[in-house]
């Protein structure tokens, strides 16, 4: 019994770099992810270059997103000498021998969800090594699991699968990542934690397929909340009185606001009328000044016949 417990639990801290996941788990996840990327390329009739791009994107895209968010350590797809070659191998096998792969069609969904939960464990593991919180760890694990498929769907011009309603997929990654984090911090060996992560993630996916559980859509719960609140308000005198007082204050504020608005509008009309009256008065003054000027000019012309009045000057100019 003690020997069994030693294989399940450890006294080492989860952040201890001597306690790491087996490398073959990462390799398996990368191979399966790249293979499914190549299958997607085949479904969309892409060429060899498109197949390679889809394979690398699905096999390493989630890890790339994780490392960009984390910004600690190196970028796995660049620092690892085998990551990109593994993607190329898996992609070329599927591209040239897709007939053999498609014969295993009924097993492909299981292999796909297996790669998802393995990626979830891998992403969570890296977050654990840097002592991140459970929320950050689960987020990084989930992004590692579904990030490659999300990039693939975006490049192909589709709504990412993780955002479409259907049987659990991203939720399996969330559950697996959460399980891995809890198990590791409970003192379990990381291989055991990874096994539990796989069991929970794949088990949840199987249940969603068996019982046709679908991811929830947006629902409006406001009627469910409003009706009980109304009943409580109507049944409780104190609450009813407070609600009535608040409603009265609200109506008073609304009325005051309307009065202020009407007053401002009246002031605006008064200012406009006043400006109009000032304009008319200025026009009358201008006419009066012009009349006085003509009278003065005519008087000067009467005393000095050589000086023409303004009216005569204008007539001469018109004749010319």
How would you describe this structure to a colleague?
- By secondary structure, the protein is mainly alpha-helical.
- Helix 3 runs antiparallel to helix 5.
- The longest helix has 67 residues.
- The N and C termini lie far apart (130 Å).
A few lines on this structure:
With 320 residues, the chain is mainly alpha-helical.
* Cα end-to-end separation: 130 Å
Give the tally of β-strands.
0
Instruction: Name the poorly predicted regions.
Output: none
The value of Rg in angstroms is 41 Å
What keyword list fits this structure?
mainly alpha; 320 residues; elongated
Write the layout of secondary structure elements.
Elements: H1 2-8, H2 23-43, H3 48-70, H4 76-79, H5 83-96, H6 98-102, H7 108-129, H8 134-155, H9 170-185, H10 190-210, H11 222-235, H12 237-303, H13 310-319
């Amino acid at each position: 019994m003690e020997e069994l417990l030693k294989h399940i639990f450890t006294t080492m801290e989860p952040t201890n770099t001597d306690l790491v996941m087996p490398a073959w788990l990462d390799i398996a996840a990368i191979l399966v992810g790249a293979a499914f990327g190549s299958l997607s390329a085949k479904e969309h009739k892409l060429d060899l270059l498109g197949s390679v791009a889809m394979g690398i994107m699905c096999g390493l895209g989630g890890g790339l997103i994780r490392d960009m968010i984390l910004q600690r350590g190196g970028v796995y797809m660049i620092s690892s000498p085998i990551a990109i070659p593994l993607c190329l191998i898996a992609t070329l096998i599927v591209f040239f021998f897709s007939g053999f792969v498609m014969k295993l069609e009924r097993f492909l969904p299981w292999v796909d969800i297996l790669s998802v939960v393995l990626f979830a464990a891998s992403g969570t593991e890296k977050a654990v090594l840097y002592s991140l919180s459970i929320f950050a760890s689960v987020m990084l694990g989930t992004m590692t699991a579904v990030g490659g498929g999300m990039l693939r769907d975006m490049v192909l011009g589709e709504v990412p699968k993780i955002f479409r309603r259907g049987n659990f997929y991203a939720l399996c990654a969330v559950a697996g990542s959460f399980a891995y984090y809890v198990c590791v911090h409970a003192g379990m060996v990381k291989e055991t934690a990874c096994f539990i992560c796989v069991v929970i993630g794949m088990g949840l996916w199987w249940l969603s397929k068996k019982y046709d559980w679908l991811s929830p859509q947006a629902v409006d719960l406001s009627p469910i909340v409003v009706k009980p609140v109304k009943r409580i308000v109507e049944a409780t005198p104190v609450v009813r009185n407070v609600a009535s007082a608040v409603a009265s204050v609200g109506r008073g504020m609304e009325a005051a606001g309307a009065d202020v608005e009407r007053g401002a509008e009246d002031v605006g009309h008064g200012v406009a009328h006043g400006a109009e009256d000032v304009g008319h008065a200025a026009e009358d003054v201008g006419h009066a000044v012009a009349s006085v000027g003509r009278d003065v000019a005519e008087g000067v012309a009467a005393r000095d016949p050589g000086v023409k009045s303004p009216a005569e000057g204008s007539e001469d100019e018109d004749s010319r």
